[in-house]
Design goal:
Blueprint lengths: L1 H26 L5 H29 L3 H29 L4 H33 L1
Helix pairs in contact: 1-2, 1-4, 2-3, 2-4
Length: 131
């Protein structure tokens, strides 16, 4: 149960605090609206990527090893093309600051990737102890 609390902390609370911080910076006029939009869209794209990966991992954990790998790696390919398309569409059609957007997207992409890897590691440990 303790590991679930840590997972919730790292997957929900810390990104929410980052969004709240950016909102506070916007209202105190420390950043302008295009920078705010850049940060927000970057976080949302990375979070969408994380949610898809997390759901694929949860679905794959109950499957045999071969099916697990197919589900997880299939989701990785799907997520790659989805994130790539969303980045291209955002940079092409929305008014965002490119540096802020790219930095935020990839920072949170790697952050969520670490959280996802730690989740899979913890679930593997739990599965071994239950068997």
């Amino acid at each position: 149960m303790q590991k679930n609390k840590v997972f919730v902390l790292f997957s929900i609370i810390i990104p929410s605090l980052a969004i709240l911080s950016v909102i506070i910076l916007l209202f105190t006029r420390q950043i302008d609206t295009p920078v705010f939009n850049s940060f927000l869209l970057g976080i949302l794209i990375a979070a969408l990527n994380f949610i898809i990966g997390f759901l694929a991992a949860r679905k794959g954990l109950s499957k045999p090893n071969k099916s697990f790998l197919i589900i997880v790696f299939g989701a990785v390919i799907l997520r790659f093309f989805l994130v790539f398309a969303l980045i291209i569409l955002t940079l092409s059609f929305l008014y965002v600051r490119m540096n802020s957007f790219i930095f935020t997207t990839f920072t949170f992409y790697f952050y969520f990737l670490i959280v996802e890897i730690l989740y899979l590691k913890n679930q593997k440990i739990l599965l071994k102890t239950n068997n």
